[in-house]
Amino acid sequence: xxxxLLFKNKFLKxxxxxxxKYFPLKNLLIAKNFKMKEFYITKxxxxxxxxxxxxxxxxxxxxxxxxYYGEILDVVVDLRKKSKNFQKYFSYKLSYIxxxxxxxxxxxxxxxxxxxxxxxxxxxxxxxxxFRYDTGxxxxxxxxxxxxxxxxxxxxxxxxxxxxxxxxxxxxNKFKHYV
Length: 179
Description:
8% of the residues lie in helices and 41% in strands. By secondary structure, the chain is mostly beta strands. The chain has a single domain (5-174), classed as Jelly Rolls (Sandwich). The radius of gyration is 16 Å and the shape is globular.
């Protein structure tokens, strides 16, 4: 599969609580027989930006991202040199409420901004994480309007929360690891 896919998950709610079916077999088949190798969960505060990340070389991976709690703005950038969408970005709101998950194929960088007070985000990958092949580019180097989505806190101006590593990533125009 060579394109990003947005899936609507099954959500049932009754007096006991709720039930969500994140990955029905049909979605995994659509994603070309995705075979899970690792599963991660992150918990992040409001206005946190994680990204833009990817694994390169022989460790490129497909991933499925979903929100277990809260809401995020998920952003992907196409890094496939031969793609008509090369270096274009796409964004999707994912949340516990809208029950959506996203399939991100090899060749796309990924990041997200937390829109709710906090968010618990799950990732399923079809390749094992290897720090030697983990890379990315600066979140603010490809004209995505992050500031438009940063939530004000009690009418005070708020800055995004970003890791030291992400702050120090190269600009997209200097990024050399295209697929």
